[in-house]
Design brief:
Number of helices: 5
Strand content: 25-35%
Largest sheet: 6 strands, mixed
Helix content: 10-25%
Number of domains: 3
CATH architecture of the largest domain: 3-Layer(aba) Sandwich
CATH topology of the largest domain: Lysozyme-like
Number of strands: 24
CATH class of the largest domain: Alpha Beta
Oligomer: single chain
């Protein structure tokens, strides 16, 4: 018994028990240590400014928050705040983030904001509006950082997984008729901030090379989603975001998902950012070649080569050309 008493005394001493000035790490009972629960995450500073009561649904039950939906206002934060207070708008969001990172809360988290255009998603989500436009790159570092801190707090508070299946754009809501947050929104950077990982806005896009002969491109990040096309070994695509071992890439003017097990990251690769809307994609480097499709402003592709002011890109499993004067280069 004397040996057991010595062991218990040592455990108490290690925990700051039995007097002394050490940190209180828990209470030793019968040779065990009970660790206090982790502190609750701290909510980022917000300003309360209530939406009109007829623009959202107040509820008294636990609505089971499963998603965070990212929006752009198509204008200013002040404009959104005013619109959500307008009885004629019939819309609202829980939060509005301005260019400088200031956050305004307009609907309580427990209540249902009318933001997603899909009632089931309204019921089970929190909506965050952002100053800016879907097809203009007005995003600021402060807006990304404060919004991501808010999303992280929401995830930790309500148990929402920190992945792209649960943190989604308005465009990804089933039945959505909106395209926000748009092609300029940097999902890689945003998700790194949400997960509290090292993040650099300037270098968050990555070039991914296909390592198998033919790789399916799917409409979502798992094999349960439909196949929308294929890409070929040796081709490179810009990873826009990632989720659960899958990479989102630009695919024929849209987006698709590829399994990471058949992709490898390449460095020192040049990408192009499309700077004009509805830019023609052609079969060769000149206007005399056939138009085979279009790409939209803000989309990103890996550069194969350039010739006479034209740029060859990998475009949905094929090598195609766009006019270089309507693009800008970036490094990956």
């Amino acid at each position: 018994m004397r040996g057991a008493s010595i062991l218990l005394a040592l455990a108490l001493a290690a925990c700051g028990g039995g007097g002394g000035g050490g940190e209180d790490l828990g209470t030793a009972v019968a040779g065990t240590v009970t660790v206090p629960p982790a502190p609750k995450p701290e909510k980022p500073p917000t300003t309360w400014s209530a939406a009109y009561s007829g623009n959202y649904t107040s509820v008294s039950y636990d609505r089971g928050i499963q998603y965070v939906v990212i929006h752009t206002i198509e204008g200013t934060a002040a404009g959104a705040i005013s619109w959500f207070k307008n009885p004629d708008s019939n819309v609202s969001a829980h939060y509005v983030v301005d260019y400088g990172g200031a956050i305004t809360q307009m609907v309580q988290d427990k209540d249902i904001a009318w933001h997603a255009g899909n009632w089931d998603y309204n019921v089970h989500s929190i909506g965050i509006e952002h100053a800016g436009y879907a097809y203009k790159n007005y995003w600021t570092a402060a807006e990304y950082q404060k919004s991501a801190a808010l999303t992280r707090w929401i995830c930790l508070t309500y148990g929402v997984p920190m992945d792209r299946a649960h943190i989604i754009g308005h465009v990804e809501v089933p039945g959505a008729t909106h395209t926000d947050p748009g092609p300029y929104f940097n999902w890689n950077y945003y998700m790194s901030l949400v997960k509290d990982e090292p993040a650099d806005l300037a270098t968050s896009y990555k070039a991914m090379e296909v390592t198998t002969s033919t790789l399916n491109v799917r409409s979502g990040p798992s094999t349960s989603y439909s196949v929308i096309g294929t890409v070929l070994e040796g081709q490179r695509y810009v990873r826009l975001s990632s989720s659960g071992g899958w990479s989102q890439i630009q695919y024929k003017g849209n987006v698709g998902w590829c399994y990471d097990g058949y992709l490898t990251q390449k460095t020192g690769v040049t990408g192009i950012l499309v700077t004009s809307d509805a830019l023609n994609v052609r079969s060769g480097p000149g206007t005399e070649y056939a138009v085979v499709g279009t790409v939209a402003i803000g989309q990103r592709y890996a550069l194969v080569e350039g010739a006479n002011g034209w740029k060859k890109i990998w475009w949905g499993g094929e090598e195609r050309w766009v006019y270089g004067g309507s693009t800008s280069d970036f490094a990956m």
